[in-house]
Write a structure and sequence with these properties.
Chain A: This is DUF1574 domain-containing protein. Chain B: Belongs to the membrane-bound acyltransferase family. Chain B: It holds the Pfam family MBOAT. The complex is a heterodimer of chains A (about 325) and B (about 475). Chain A is α/β, with parallel strands linked by helices. Chain A has eleven helices and five strands; from the N terminus they run H-H-E-H-H-E-H-E-H-H-H-H-E-H-E-H. Chain A has a five-stranded parallel beta sheet with strand order 2-1-3-4-5, with helices on both faces. In chain A, helix 4 runs parallel beside helix 11. Chain A is globular, with a radius of gyration of 22 Å. Chain A starts with a helix and ends in a 7-residue tail after the last helix. The mean pLDDT of chain A is about 90. Chain B is mostly helical and about 475 residues long. Chain B folds into two domains: about 180 residues, no CATH class; about 210 residues, no CATH class. Chain B has 17 helices and no strands. Chain B starts with 5 loop residues before the first helix and ends in a 12-residue tail after the last helix. The mean pLDDT of chain B is about 90. Classes of the chains: A alpha/beta (about 325), B mainly alpha (about 475). At the A-B interface, helix 1 of A face helix 8 and helix 17 of B.
């Protein structure tokens, strides 16, 4: 028995000793990925480095990071701007990003909150799970927000390397990043990346599958959103609601769209926030600005950012520095 | 508790250490620890199932004792029937109630006399078919006086619920396993090391091969109409490897785990996809079930002693019952029937025991004839797996129609990014199995061929493959049976 246990220990010892260094190796190299993980790594890297220090931050989903160009906003507002839009997630995980941002960076002066009909929905799946891999070890905020999805086990947040088990593509990308020069393709710039695409058939396909969609705001998430707005007010962070353009033909696809918009209007009124709704704007009328119903292409996003900039200057003159 | 889970990774060393360091002074305490651990292991799924296994244990223990005290042939037979009816009654209720009800309702409706019957929401207890057959083997062997009834209830509980093989076998005979619970156990270094190797090999089969194949097979079986014949063929082949590696991987882990505790379980798989005909396949696939049916059904029915027609009838009975054992669905019955039909020509030509040894025993490569036989047999088995995996009969027909459609030569429609690594994994796996087909498992007696550094390299490579190449975790297929 002694011999068995001794040999077993000799076998396991290198695994235990190397687990943490290997974890650091994989995480540090995975963070360099651009195409993998929907290019969220660059945003996390900027955020966790603590060098963001933006006066204006953009929150929201993919509609945020593809629609609002921080470079154009910076030029017009003369303030530093960063887009923290999070692909495929609603306020459920956008709030995690907000908490993590404040933990490592000074609080912003303004938050441009990009809303959509799904913002207050609770999603059952943890989309793009690989984005959390390099940052989740010993991170309580990430654990609290992602553990309930059931994708990771409790030990994944505390035992080095364990969470990479079965993540073959993540491991492959990390190793690739370690041995070959990192992908130099244009990634997200200050969190923003426009899509230079023309109209695709996503909407038609969705319509074929579903007659209509009904968005259901989650009561707990709605409550949390109210708390978030109150906390921002308390910290002297001004939140501005932005409902960026949606292609007009697709708007009827969401059955209770007006009800959701009314919810946002009420929230804005209750918390005395500016609500800029572009869903009926002229950009929303033209297909050429979109690559699908909810997403503007590069031309559309630049046109929209310029429109938003003018409106901010007009309605919030203090926001634009001389 | 799944073998490929963190829970089990913590559970196993704790039980192992308690077994050899705390309860090692007495067999009774060791058996009691096995019972406790096994009930915890089983109750991890659903604690309510524990009452069922305890009831089954109690009934067979009592009947075993009664059989031991009873000399009257009629009363002994009656006791045996009580055990058979209770065990099969429980199995029938939990597994087949809704199936038979639906079929009765359909049959009466077809006959123009519609009747109503409400299906019940019955949760199928994990592994019920396995432990039911294991306890039945005890009662039948006691009835046949092949085994003396045990008076040690703890040993009997441990025999019924022994956690390594409780939920998916190998289905042990009481004559083989039960006496082991009565013997003192001494830790055997070589046996334990080999057990660890078998666990490692079983885990890699399950996690690397089966779970990755499942991702592809699930696509073709869940979206059959979306794929061309060529892709459906590949999906069926991947399912063949999924089910083999899933089930034989489980058996390897079970056998290896049992060896850590000083127990020897029977072999369940012997490289079945290298079989040269279907008869050989059935001597190599799920051996514990095939031999169970042979000993407790085929031979009592007369086996091959009563002439060709009776033999054919018996073959059809065991294959159909074997199909039904797997699940309450016509697809399983047709799967069994299909194998009976595959078996029939071999039986009529008296060639069903033609291939009893290992293929290409004297040479590294098989002869052209052997290679053709292996491929042909594998093709027949793959066609059978379509029924096994299909949701229902119409789905099986749809899948087979797709496989034999004009699109059989069309390009594979699933990304090369998924298909090629999977084919590479399979190529490595088949090569390893081929090179080690004379062994009980590929890592057996590794020390005879490789020195320590090479052995360690093999272990680390397998561990790394399990860690990195792990597919989307899937439940063991045979848990549902």
């Amino acid at each position: 028995m002694k011999r068995f246990l001794k040999n077993l220990s000799y076998f396991l010892l290198p695994v235990l000793v190397l687990a943490y260094p290997l974890d650091i190796f994989l995480s540090n190299n995975l963070k360099k990925s651009k195409a993998y993980g929907q290019d969220e790594y660059s945003v996390y890297n900027d955020m966790y480095s603590g060098n963001l220090r933006a006066e204006v931050v953009v929150y929201g989903s993919s509609r945020a990071w593809t629609h609002l160009n921080p470079i154009l906003l910076e030029k017009g507002l003369h303030r530093s701007v960063y887009n923290l839009g999070l692909d495929g997630h609603t306020f459920q995980l956008q709030y995690l990003r907000h908490l993590e941002y404040l933990k490592y960076n000074p609080k912003p002066r303004y938050i441009l909150y990009s809303l959509d009909v799904f913002t207050l929905e609770r999603l059952p799946d943890l989309y793009n799970v690989q984005q959390f891999l390099p940052y989740m070890l010993y991170n309580e905020n990430i654990k609290n927000f992602t553990l309930p999805y059931g994708h990771f086990s409790f030990l994944d947040y505390y035992l080095p390397l364990l969470r990479y088990s079965g993540k073959k593509w993540a491991v492959l990308h990390a190793v690739k990043n370690a041995v070959v020069p990192v992908d130099q393709s244009a990634g997200r710039v200050k969190g923003y990346r426009a899509k230079d695409e023309t109209w695709n058939g996503d909407f038609e396909k969705a319509q074929e599958k579903l007659q209509y969609y009904k968005a259901i705001p989650d009561p707990e998430l709605t409550k949390l959103f109210h708390q978030f707005l109150q906390n921002c007010a308390r910290q002297n962070i001004e939140v501005i609601f932005v409902y960026s353009p949606e292609y007009i033909e697709g708007q009827k696809f969401v059955q209770n769209r007006e009800e959701i918009l009314q919810l946002y209007r009420n929230m804005a009124a209750q918390h005395r926030l500016l609500f800029l709704d572009y869903s009926q704007d002229k950009i929303s009328q033209e297909k050429k600005f979109f690559y699908n119903v909810t997403h503007l292409n590069k031309t559309g996003s630049e046109a929209f950012t310029n429109t938003l900039l003018q409106d901010l200057k007009r309605l919030k003159p203090a926001m634009a520095l001389p | 508790m799944l073998f490929n889970s963190i829970d089990f990774a913590l559970f196993l060393p704790i039980v192992f250490l308690l077994y050899w360091f705390v309860t090692n002074k007495s067999i009774w305490w060791q058996n009691l620890l096995i019972v406790g651990a096994s009930y915890l292991f089983y109750g991890w799924w659903d604690w309510r199932f524990l009452f069922l296994i305890f009831f089954s244990t109690l009934v067979d223990y009592g009947i075993g004792l009664a059989l031991g005290n009873e000399a009257h042939a009629g009363k002994r037979k009656a006791l045996l029937w009580v055990s058979v009816l209770v065990n099969l009654g429980l199995l029938g209720f939990f597994k087949y109630y809704n199936f038979f009800l639906e079929n009765f309702v359909s049959a009466f409706t077809l006959l123009g006399r519609p009747i109503s019957g409400d299906a019940l929401h019955i949760v199928l207890p994990v592994g019920i078919s396995f432990y039911t057959f294991q306890t039945l083997s005890y009662t039948i062997d006691v009835y046949r006086k092949k085994l003396a009834p045990t008076k040690d209830f703890v040993s009997f509980m441990a025999f019924v619920s022994f956690f390594p093989q409780l939920v998916a076998g190998p289905i042990e005979r009481a004559t083989h396993l039960l006496p082991q619970f009565h013997q003192p156990r001494k830790f055997q270094y070589r046996s334990a090391v080999d057990g660890m190797r078998q666990i490692l090999w079983g885990l890699s089969k399950k996690v690397v091969v089966a779970d990755n194949c499942a991702e592809f097979a699930n696509l073709t079986f869940n979206h059959t109409s979306d794929y061309a014949g060529s892709t459906l063929w590949l999906g069926a082949v991947f399912f063949a490897f999924q089910i083999y590696c899933d089930f034989s991987g489980y058996s390897d882990i079970a056998i290896g785990t049992a060896r850590l505790f000083g127990f020897d379980l029977m072999r369940n798989f012997a490289f079945p996809y290298f079989s040269r005909d279907v008869a050989e396949f059935w001597r190599r696939w799920h051996i514990s079930l095939s031999t169970w049916f042979r000993d407790y059904l085929y031979i009592p029915l007369g086996g091959s002693r009563g002439g060709t027609m009776l033999n054919i009838r018996n073959i059809f009975i065991i294959f159909i019952v074997s199909g039904l054992w797997h699940g309450a669905n016509w697809t399983f019955i047709v799967w069994g029937l299909l194998h009976a039909l595959y078996f029939l020509p071999l039986l009529l030509l008296k060639r069903n025991r033609q291939h009893v040894g290992t293929v290409a025993e004297a040479s590294f490569f098989p002869s052209a004839k052997e290679a053709t036989q292996i491929i042909f047999t594998f093709g027949l088995v793959v066609l059978g797996w379509v029924f096994f995996r299909a949701h229902d009969m119409s789905h099986a027909v749809q899948y087979l129609t797709g496989m034999f459609s004009s699109s059989i030569l069309a390009p594979i429609e699933i990304e090369a990014q998924i298909t090629l690594p999977l084919l590479l994994i399979l190529a490595v796996f088949i090569s390893v199995e081929w090179c080690t087909k004379h062994k009980l498992h590929p890592l057996e007696k590794l020390e005879q061929k490789w020195k320590r550094p090479m052995r360690l390299t093999i272990y680390y490579m397998l561990a790394a493959a399990i860690f990195v190449l792990e597919g989307q975790p899937q439940a063991f297929i045979y848990f549902q049976f």
